[in-house]
Design goal:
heterodimer, A: mainly alpha, 2 helices, B: mainly alpha, Tetracycline Repressor, domain 2, 2 domains, 15 helices, flat
């Protein structure tokens, strides 16, 4: 059997392959959309990204509010 | 199967043939009732999550349809109504249908769980099991009550939709289930009355075959009369309303009249007018379910806009 780049089988299965491909693309879109919605429903989040986050610094016991005037 | 045999097959199964395994017409009913169940629930669901829930319920229903076609391929080939399904038509092999059915079953249950909650996913899994194993494999060929118990499988979608939204079962959800459950027997027995040759040929023990057509007519009347209070009861719950109650009263009165007409007739009269009354009853039964669920949607919309 000679090896052909374009075999008859490719032609016959073309529409099926396109269909499966479209289903997979749609599935990826659905999972992405679902993930975005689910994550947004969790509310505000902060990650530890190696920068100083003032709200995590314990309040000094000087009796003054941070950033308050003298 | 070797590569050579694959190449020698005349007809290549197309995408549409695999889609036909999922029984798209049944799926459309599932989508509609699950959608209503989800929407009338007293909980706000994000549209994307609602869409995913209905999609995965529909895929689950389709998977059970594929499993049913795999198991019933032998009798489908004998009945005119089902002879053109993908397996008896020779387009898809039974093994492929089994593979599609099992894969989509697992997929739909897990995805529904991830999208909504475990209770909804468990109910979907039970529905698939009930339709494929309890109904198709066990009851369908062994008892004339197959339709009654098998009807439960078709009645689950609005319940699953409700549970997907709320996370639990309540009276309203059970009544939506009961509405479809009680509606199924008269719907299918009317079909069996005028498609009698099909079920005879396949040896499926339909009530018309095992107990005769007189008994079937009685059963249609009794189930239709039992259906009416269930349908009306739903109107007095928190998801019911003026639209639903009006529709339920009119539709049930008309349905009961149809069942009464069927009960009064004998075979000679039915043969004489080619089952006109039975066919009209069957046609109306499709409309019956549709208008009930549409009315639930209408009342939900009225509530959303503050009219009631």
């Amino acid at each position: 059997m000679t090896i052909k780049v374009e075999h008859d089988l490719h032609r016959r299965r073309f529409s099926r392959n396109v269909g499966v491909g479209l289903v997979l693309v749609a599935f990826i879109c659905i999972i992405f959309g679902l993930t975005v919605v689910k994550v947004k429903q969790l509310g505000q989040m902060q990650a530890f990204d190696h920068v100083v986050r003032p709200e995590l610094v314990p309040v000094q016991s000087t009796g003054q509010a941070p950033g308050g005037s003298n | 199967m070797t590569d050579a045999t694959i190449l020698e097959r005349d007809t290549e199964a197309q995408f549409g043939d695999y889609f036909a395994l999922l029984k798209p017409r049944v799926m459309s009913l599932v989508v509609f009732t699950a959608f209503v169940g989800l929407l009338v629930a007293p909980v706000q669901v994000h549209p994307m999550i609602g869409f995913c829930a209905i999609l995965f319920i529909a895929v689950g229903a389709g998977a059970s349809g594929a499993l049913n076609m795999w198991w019933d391929a032998d009798i489908d080939a004998l009945m005119k109504r089902t002879a053109r399904r993908p397996i008896p038509a020779g387009k898809v092999t039974a093994q492929e249908a089994l593979g599609v059915g099992l894969a989509l079953s697992g997929f739909s249950v897990v995805m529904l769980w991830l999208a909504t909650n475990l209770a909804a996913a468990a109910l979907l899994a039970f529905t698939i099991f009930f339709y494929a194993v309890v109904y198709s494999m066990w009851l369908k060929r062994s008892t004339p009550q197959n339709i009654v118990i098998g009807g439960a499988a078709g009645a689950f979608p609005p319940l699953i939709g409700w549970v997907a939204a709320t996370g639990s079962v309540s009276l309203e959800a059970v009544l939506m289930f009961a509405l479809i459950f009680m509606w199924t027997p008269p719907h299918f027995w009317a079909l069996a009355l005028f498609l009698k040759k099909d079920y005879d040929t396949a040896g499926v023990p339909m009530l018309t075959v095992t107990h005769g057509r007189r008994v079937t007519r009685q059963h249609i009347l009794v189930y239709t009369l039992l259906l009416a209070p269930v349908a009306l009861w739903l109107g007095f719950t928190q998801i019911g309303g003026p639209v639903y109650l009006t529709v339920a009263v009119l539709a049930n009165a008309w349905f009961a009249k149809g069942a009464f007409d069927i009960w009064r007739r004998d075979e000679d009269r039915a043969e004489a007018d080619k089952y006109r009354v039975e066919k009209a009853f069957f046609q109306f039964s499709l409309l019956y379910l549709f208008v009930h669920f549409m009315a639930l949607l209408a009342d939900a919309a009225l509530r959303a806009f503050g009219v009631i």
